[in-house]
Amino acid sequence: MSEALRDKAAIVGIGTSKFGRHLPESQLALAAQAFKAALADAGLERGDIDGLSIHIGWPLGVDYDQVAQAFGLEIDFVNQAWTHGRFVTGSLQTAAMAVACGMARVVACVNVLSFTRERDILGGPHDFEGYRETGGTHAETPHYGLTAPAGGAALAMQRYMALYGATGAELAAVPVALRAHARLNPKAVMRKPMSVADHQASRMVVDPLRLFDCCIVSDGAAVVLVTAAERARDLGQRPVYIAGMQGMAAGRNEFIFAPPGLGINQQSGPRPASAAARDLAVYRSAGIPREAIQGLYTYDAFSPLVLFVLERFGFCAPGEAAAFVQEGRIGPGGALPVNTSGGLLSEAHVAGWNSLCEMVRQLRGEAGTRQIADARALQWATAWGDSVILRN
Amino acid sequence: MGAYEKPTPRINPDNARFWESAHEGVLRLPRCGDCAAWHWPPGPICPACFSERIGWEEAQGHGTVSTWTVVHQDWFPAFKADIPYTVAQIELAEGVRLTADIVECPADKLRVGLPVEIVFDRVTETLTLPRFRPRRG
Ligand SMILES: [Zn+2]
Prior knowledge:
The complex is a heterodimer of chains A (about 400) and B (about 140).
Chain A: E1 9-16, H1 27-42, E2 51-54, H2 64-71, E3 77-80, H3 88-100, E4 106-114, H4 148-164, H5 168-171, H6 173-182, H7 196-201, E5 204-206, E6 209-210, E7 219-228, H8 229-232, E8 240-246, H9 281-286, E9 296-297, H10 303-312, H11 321-324, H12 343-346, H13 353-364, E10 377-381, E11 387-391
Chain B: H1 16-23, E1 28-32, E2 54-58, E3 62-71, E4 85-92, E5 97-102, E6 115-122, E7 128-134
The structure holds zinc ion.
């Protein structure tokens, strides 16, 4: 990744629907709530939106043509990804590239998931992607009863525990920290206090993952508006700049829920002793070193993914993340707060867009009791190696 | 014996030989006719050297558990009676890893590195599932 796109695009509006479980509204209705809120936040009209970047389409979410039709938009640029959380970063990056190169003026990243209505789409008998002839993308093998993304995260964590001696009780520090963040967020779906003992008492789902290691099944929408930096400065909000970006890794040494070298699926070779150069491109792209990152935001569908992203980006060495997350280090007021609105584990599963909205709030200084003091640079990064650094 | 209600694998031109072989009670894996590398999952081209000369050769049928999980959640109604059951990734002697279930193994014996061997379970008139059990002898 070059520096060509450094600070060329900015987030100028964010909006969310209500978050909850078994919400009566349709996906389109939740998207409309978030879309209107984002326009109001940015001081834009719907006629200003000429691009759509959709992360998760129908049936879990909504497709671009449904959005354009239902909201009466006239759209000249469209991107829509696959029904998987992994495409959150790419959907935002595509919006940034589109406005930076002039293919669109304002791109709306419209994201909605109604998990409680479409429970079977991931993991159940209707999870058709799990039947892929070369194996499901999270190692699903329905004929052996392994299904759902959680199965892939469990396979990776089990091997990680065997290699490094990490324990389920250490892993508990992740959901416990995110719950502590969520307790400061009135919008979070899960706000009941959680202790390590509560985690250890929660039922086993796919060993070693317990119920509290798995994201909540919720409904909600989030919209992020992206425009070119020069235009952003003329709008009502303090712009949040997309300072640097790096793309997703793929290849025989990658498994979506494991760091390279862990030995899942066809990953071969040893784990590198430190973060790979390709995984540090985002810091060069942004001109912001890792040491300047004040908060990390990630796709925390399962608690091991937080350990893996910390190691992948070099916040700690391979095998050290389970120790790194202890003693509140990633919780409120910790040295490296992670997902300060509660993430997918406790706020809501809006495919990470809830956390991207939180990053914008933090960088505007609007995060209330969750505010990271003098927040200037925050990083979005995932266990599969893509990233965006935002700054104010 | 009632109808088989569990999901069955989708078979296409790239993986058909694997399932046909399993139904004959033989583990065959794709192997490159040029560089001799085994690969998995089956594909039309050798991922190592890019050759299209892919053959199918009999594999030894044993390896070690590289990772595993015990499923406690009833995602599929047809598996509900089997809970808890074990699914693992097995690193075969040929170097590739298969995902399959583990049978004849108490949960407290499961570990990374456990030596296992293949068994063939004919589940329908047309489908045989390879499974793995702790290696004997
Ligand atoms: Zn070859």
